[in-house]
Design a protein that fits this description.
D-Maltodextrin-Binding Protein, domain 2; 5-stranded mixed sheet; 12 helices; 43% helix; 6-stranded mixed sheet
Amino acid sequence: MKLTLGFSPCPNDTFIFDALVNGKIDAEGFEFEPVLEDVETLNQWALQGRLDITKLSFPAYFKTVETYCLLPSGSALGNGVGPLLVSGSDKVVSEEDVNAATVLLPGENTTANLLFSFAYPNAKNKRFQVFHEIEDMLVTKEAELGVIIHENRFTYESKGLFKVKDLGEHWEQKLNAPIPLGGIVIKKILGEDVYAKVNRLINKSLQVAFDSYPEISEYVKCHAQAMLPRVMRQHIDLYVNNFSLNLGEKGFSAVETLHEVYKDQSGATKLT
């Protein structure tokens, strides 16, 4: 059976799926067609039901629960992994300043957008950009504030930017729950047997990656956008953890907590 599989070119995703899509493990009769795109593109495609299996932000999952089911393996969820609100100036930024400013965000359906709105419910001047463009737009003063994710957490200071708020830290302090960033979902129409097998294969693929870590494979390197090996490892260390192997009760509970916040902001269907 051939299945389309969407994930981002970021090191945490390529680290997880390398063995699966490159024949390093037995795919048990499946053929996976990898589709690598920015997470907000994957979010938009999920809303259209384009891919059989895909990485997506959890707010996008909440919008697609009629089509997709969340897999226990492959997620990005944890403590200290949240997005950062940053500024091009070192001046103190008040909540009123944030509310009045233009804020760049990495996509309407991203967890970053949801966590920003949770921290600043009255900030309405949002502009959505591809995540890797936000740093440079702040450096060139095209906007006052921006929310950064992925490897930009490790590079913003070197570009002369300043942290205003750790949105993940705010979430953890208020709700005492890990931060659910993104998950792997599969079309419900494929059935429970395919669900179980694909989940097992993703888990096995990640185990193979962990077995050779801290070595970084060529597959991860070639998609890392000229990222330094040190930054690749920081990225993997931050976003890939035991929750990536299996969300478990604590992980699924954190996703439900995020869903409750999502419903408060916009309304949503019950998770099934």
